[in-house]
């Protein structure tokens, strides 16, 4: 609906679609219901709901435009490259060169049709990524609870919420029981927010994370149940506001200059119009839009077009600007021979093929233009939870005073029978760093009294449930932190659920509160009738409620907490009280008459528990592959700095030996967001290194990091899954969203989506991006080297004139177009399908600034082009002067006659050599440095298998090789269309110049290898591939000059 696209400028956070007297969190639930003209128990009538849906629009963030085939087709035709080819076509038809024009028209039509089909398929693939299952909501209408599509909710609807529900819209809570919502996608807070419907806030600017009487769209109910009244839908929700803000992607838009009165002067208006015309023209020419590679290719095509015009003028001038058709055709042939006419076709097919391969490797490309740019990524800014880590908590260590420490080593977070448990009488601060430190024990055999008291808390101050299913697997439900504690208690023989079992009955719960940071339960021992309290929470807060905590004891406890935190663990304290607690009535509990201050005091400290969110097994190898590929990895997380530091070291983002890092760098490698945000842009730019870890991140912090990297000339990829990641995903050069656990807003902001949420898939994306870059270089070099060869041959050939002083072309326009269409388009497409080199991640990212035009590429371009030109000119000259005494005949550029026999045969020899050299050149380019004949003599079978590895390229070469014969010997086609004749004795010349080309190409590659090895630009096989070697190379600039790593590198 058009309503969903409406501008919401001026909308106040927390307000309804149509503003209330105050934001919903500042009003009581009764007032919100009244102002929305609904009923708390009966809800809206169906008729009113339909009317409001028409008025407010659907409850969505605005549908993306569907696939529009006509627009795609127009885009294939109306672009600068196609227009240039159409100009050549018009010139051909203008001089009535019907054959040449027909062949060129066929090439353009094929180019447009295939490009249209590929772009249409890509657009449909993107459109099909939307979920097939529509979200639903339980809503009360006409007094009846029913299930409707979430998109049809309207302000005033009464919705019911329960555990596991995704909240469909922003709603003011009417009533609830122990309601908690996971709002991490919106606020970044990993702990679920407890909701209190009776709260009313005076401050209208209260942030979303502090509005405890409101539930937000896309948040997930993790505990309890409740009812709420919808007050904001679609773009008026908090998520909608973030989605609207994503329109600011850092791009600059033209604005009219206005004076202090708001008026625009005439000169400023003209300047604005001129700049807008420049913007639109640049967009049409492709030089101001798209990825850096696309802009580079567009610029190249325009430069070549200018050069082609110059070459055509040179041809006309050499023939004294005669208006003969053959002179004009010669000029057109030279111009067309200059243009890389297959560029659009092959680039489109290569990109589409890359997209399909990415899907197979768990990467969905939303923006095809960003695919090849992945090869230039220099830095990855990654979220931690769920990206580098599994998002599944496990208890790693449990310290019990006066007993010792239990350590758990497991890779299965929900299975209490997996892994091993060890016990050490030491405290965490004195223990080693190994996963299992101490003596292995059987948990169910451990019966120590302090341990039992500790397990009572872990088991009972816990709402999570862990149970074994019929298929012998384990299932866990609840908050991840509580699941980790419950699994730990279950290891030691506890039942896997809280109270209300055979042994204990829960009397009351004091839920976790963000201000109190504690959670407690009152339970009654069914055997003795004794009431006890069990408490868990933040260490400092629990200690403040305990007795017998002297300064020395507190210092020891905090030291152990720091020791656990340095291991990357989230640390909670456990405490209990088993005597002196008065009986509690059911009425007191239900009515909330109990005051937690009365019970959460004089507790006995029972110990610390260290909970770990384990990194994905593939995260560390993937990070080191990033190091190997020259890509810097930054962790931007909401965790505590010490926890983030430990995880970063574990996955390889930070060096393992931080003590060797130079002092001026070490202090800035890990920063808290509040410290990072305090720095101005100039101060950030003066830092010797930007931090590799930023903790307690806000969305704005992530955007500032990306901007800081941009100012250092970096090309940045950002990973994320939450709504709070969306602005940074949009600002990054390549935004990478998580497909399984990512929000719809994050996916919409991203360029690619990881369908398996696996950090390792980022390496797949980078590898595929580099493969595409390499293959673009290959087919660009293939066509441009041939263009250099053609143009050089035709320009030098201007010296060869017939009796009337007209230059005789060695290669006809139809021959050139046939080679570009048959041999070129298919062999270059085959090069686009080439698989990645096994060393593709062993080199640094390509320069985005230079694109494909590296020094090596430019050197190769002219070297191969000149070798081709020498071979083609040699073939023509040897035949025309050696076999036919230099007789150039009469009108041999237009038609065949007996006087043209020598010219036609020389032309055929040149054409055949050109075709063969061109198709075999594709195989030479499969590896830019390795000899084409490497292994051909000592392992012929493997060499042949390497050629067959790319069947499309193999058959393209074969087709180009065989395709010359029908064009040489079929009557009419040879002399009327191609303007050449069949050959016999000239075959010796064809084979000779083909061998000459191989000798020249292999000599050039040999010279390159010698040069690169001499300048240490080619590394020895297998050298420096261990993690230690990679860490040395990656972080050596961080180390002090007297460190072991620095000195060892220096000795090398």
> Helix segment count?
36
Question: Unreliable stretches, pLDDT < 50, 5 or more residues?
Answer: 1-7, 129-134, 248-252, 1043-1052
Strand order of the largest sheet: 13-12-11-10-20-19-18-17-16
Largest sheet: 9 strands, antiparallel
- Structural Rg: 36 Å
User: What is the β-strand count?
Assistant: 26
What number is the mean pLDDT? 81
Which bin fits the share of residues in helices?
40-55%
Structural class: alpha+beta
- What proportion strand? 5-15%
Shape, principal axes of CA atoms: elongated
Q: Termini, distance in Å?
A: 67 Å
Catalytic activity: K(+)(in) + ATP + H2O = K(+)(out) + ADP + phosphate + H(+); Na(+)(in) + ATP + H2O = Na(+)(out) + ADP + phosphate + H(+)
InterPro entries: ATPase_P-typ_cation-transptr_C, ATPase_P-typ_cation-transptr_N, ATPase_P-typ_cyto_dom_N, ATPase_P-typ_P_site, ATPase_P-typ_TM_dom_sf, ATPase_P-typ_transduc_dom_A_sf, ATPase_P-type_domA, HAD-like_sf
Keywords: ATP-binding, Cell membrane, Ion transport, Magnesium, Membrane, Metal-binding, Nucleotide-binding, Potassium, Potassium transport, Sodium, Sodium transport, Translocase, Transmembrane, Transmembrane helix, Transport
Membrane topology: Multi-pass membrane protein
Report on this model:
It is found in: Cell membrane. InterPro entries: ATPase_P-typ_cation-transptr_C, ATPase_P-typ_cation-transptr_N, ATPase_P-typ_cyto_dom_N, ATPase_P-typ_P_site, ATPase_P-typ_TM_dom_sf, ATPase_P-typ_transduc_dom_A_sf, ATPase_P-type_domA, HAD-like_sf. It comes from Podospora australis. Its main location: membrane. With 1052 residues, the protein is an alpha+beta fold. Strands 13-12-11-10-20-19-18-17-16 form a 9-stranded antiparallel β-sheet. Strands 8-26-25-24-9-21-23-22 form an 8-stranded mixed β-sheet, with helices on both faces. Helix 12 runs antiparallel to helix 13. The two termini are 67 Å apart. Residues 1-7, 129-134, 248-252 and 1043-1052 have low confidence and may be disordered.
């Amino acid at each position: 609906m058009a309503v969903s696209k409406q501008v919401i400028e001026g909308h106040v956070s927390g307000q309804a679609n149509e503003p209330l007297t105050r934001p919903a969190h500042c009003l009581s639930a009764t007032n919100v219901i009244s102002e929305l003209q609904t009923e708390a128990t009966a809800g809206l009538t169906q008729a009113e709901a339909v009317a409001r849906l028409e008025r407010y629009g659907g409850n969505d963030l605005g549908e993306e435009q569907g696939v529009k085939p006509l627009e795609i087709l127009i885009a294939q035709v109306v672009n600068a490259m196609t227009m240039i080819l159409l100009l050549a076509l018009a010139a051909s038809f203008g001089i009535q060169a019907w054959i040449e024009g027909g062949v060129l028209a066929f090439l353009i039509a094929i180019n447009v049709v295939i490009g249209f089909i590929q772009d249409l398929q890509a657009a449909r693939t993107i459109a099909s990524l939307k979920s097939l299952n529509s979200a639903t909501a339980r809503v009360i209408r006409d007094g009846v609870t029913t299930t409707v599509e979430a998109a049809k909710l309207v302000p005033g609807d009464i919705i019911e919420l329960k555990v596991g529900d995704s909240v469909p819209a922003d709603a003011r809570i009417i009533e609830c029981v122990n309601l908690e919502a996971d709002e991490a996608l919106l606020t970044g807070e990993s702990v679920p927010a407890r909701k209190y419907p009776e709260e009313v806030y005076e401050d209208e600017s209260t942030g979303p994370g502090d509005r405890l009487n409101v539930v937000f769209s896309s948040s997930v109910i993790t505990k309890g149940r409740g009812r709420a009244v919808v007050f904001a839908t679609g773009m008026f929700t908090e998520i909608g506001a973030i989605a609207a803000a994503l329109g600011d992607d850092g791009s600059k838009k033209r604005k009219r200059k206005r004076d202090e009165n708001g008026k625009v002067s005439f000169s400023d208006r003209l300047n604005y119009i001129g700049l807008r015309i420049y913007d639109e023209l640049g967009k049409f020419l492709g030089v101001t839009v798209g990825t850096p590679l696309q802009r580079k290719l567009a610029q190249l095509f325009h430069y070549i077009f200018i050069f082609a015009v110059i070459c055509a003028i040179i041809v006309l001038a050499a023939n004294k600007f005669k208006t003969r058709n053959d002179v004009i055709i010669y000029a057109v042939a030279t111009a067309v021979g200059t243009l890389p006419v297959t560029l659009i076709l092959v680039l489109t097919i290569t990109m589409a093929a890359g997209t399909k391969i990415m899907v197979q490797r768990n990467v969905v490309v939303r923006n095809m233009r960003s695919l090849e740019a992945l090869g230039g990524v220099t830095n990855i800014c990654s979220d931690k939870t769920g990206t580098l880590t599994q998002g599944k908590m496990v208890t790693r260590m449990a310290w019990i005073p006066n007993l010792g420490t239990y350590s758990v080593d497991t890779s299965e977070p929900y299975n209490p029978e997996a892994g091993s448990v060890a016990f050490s009488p030491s405290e965490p601060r004195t223990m080693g760093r190994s996963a299992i430190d101490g003596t292995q024990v059987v948990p169910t055999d451990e019966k120590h009294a302090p341990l039992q008291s500790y397990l009572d808390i872990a088991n009972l101050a816990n709402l999570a449930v862990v149970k074994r299913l019929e298929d012998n697997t384990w299932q866990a439900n609840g908050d991840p932190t509580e699941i980790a504690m419950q699994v730990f208690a279950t290891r030691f023989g506890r039942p896997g659920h809280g109270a209300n079992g055979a042994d204990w009955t829960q009397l009351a719960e004091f839920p976790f509160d963000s201000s109190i940071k504690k959670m407690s339960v009152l339970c009654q021992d069914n055997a003795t009738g004794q009431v006890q309290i069990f408490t868990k929470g933040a260490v400092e807060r629990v200690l403040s409620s305990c007795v017998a905590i002297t300064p020395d004891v507190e210092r020891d406890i905090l030291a152990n907490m720091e020791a656990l935190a340095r291991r990357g663990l989230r640390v909670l304290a456990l405490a209990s009280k088993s005597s002196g607690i008065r009986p509690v009535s059911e009425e007191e509990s239900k009515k909330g008459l109990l005051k937690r201050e009365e019970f959460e005091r004089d507790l006995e400290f029972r110990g610390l528990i260290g909970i770990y969110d384990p990194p994905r097994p593939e995260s560390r190898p993937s990070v080191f592959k990033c190091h190997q590929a020259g890509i810097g990895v930054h962790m931007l997380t909401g965790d505590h700095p010490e926890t983030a530091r430990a995880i970063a070291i574990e996955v390889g983002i930070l060096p393992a030996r931080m003590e060797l890092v130079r002092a001026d760098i070490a202090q800035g490698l890990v920063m808290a967001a509040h410290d990072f945000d305090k720095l101005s842009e100039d101060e950030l730019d003066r830092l010797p290194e930007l931090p590799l870890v930023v903790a307690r991140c806000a969305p704005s912090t992530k955007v500032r990091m990306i901007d800081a990297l941009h100012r250092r000339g970096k090309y940045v990829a950002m990973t994320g899954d939450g709504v709070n990641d969306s602005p940074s995903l949009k600002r990054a050069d390549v935004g990478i969203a998580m497909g399984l656990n990512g929000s719809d807003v994050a996916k919409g902001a991203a360029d690619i989506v990881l369908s398996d949420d696996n950090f390792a898939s980022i390496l797949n994306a980078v590898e595929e991006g580099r493969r595409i870059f390499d293959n673009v270089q290959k087919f660009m070099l293939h066509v441009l080297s041939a263009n250099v060869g053609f143009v050089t041959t035709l320009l030098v050939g201007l010296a060869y004139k017939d009796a009337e002083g007209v230059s005789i072309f060695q290669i006809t326009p139809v021959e050139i177009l046939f080679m570009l269409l048959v041999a070129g388009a298919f062999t270059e497409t085959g090069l686009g399908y080439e698989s990645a080199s096994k060393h593709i991640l062993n080199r640094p990212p390509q320069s985005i600034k230079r694109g494909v035009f590296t020094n090596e590429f430019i050197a190769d371009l002219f070297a191969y082009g000149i070798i081709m030109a020498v071979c083609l000119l040699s073939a023509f000259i040897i035949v025309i002067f050696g076999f036919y005494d230099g007789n150039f005949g009469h009108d041999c550029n237009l038609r065949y006659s007996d006087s043209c026999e020598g010219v036609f045969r020389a032309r055929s020899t040149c054409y055949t050599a050109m075709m063969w050299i061109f198709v075999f050149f594709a195989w030479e380019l499969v590896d830019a440095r390795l000899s084409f004949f490497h292994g051909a003599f000592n392992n012929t079978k493997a060499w042949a298998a390497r050629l067959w590895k790319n069947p499309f390229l193999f058959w393209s070469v074969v087709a180009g090789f065989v395709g010359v014969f029908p064009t040489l010997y079929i009557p009419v086609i040879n002399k009327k269309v191609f303007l050449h004749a069949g050959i016999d004795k000239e075959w010796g010349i064809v084979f000779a110049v083909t061998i000459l080309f191989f000798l020249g190409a292999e000599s050039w590659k040999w010279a390159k290898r010698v040069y690169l090895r001499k300048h240490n630009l080619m590394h020895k096989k297998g050298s420096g591939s261990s993690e230690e070697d990679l860490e040395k190379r990656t972080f050596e600039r961080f180390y002090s000059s007297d460190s072991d790593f620095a000195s060892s590198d220096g000795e090398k």
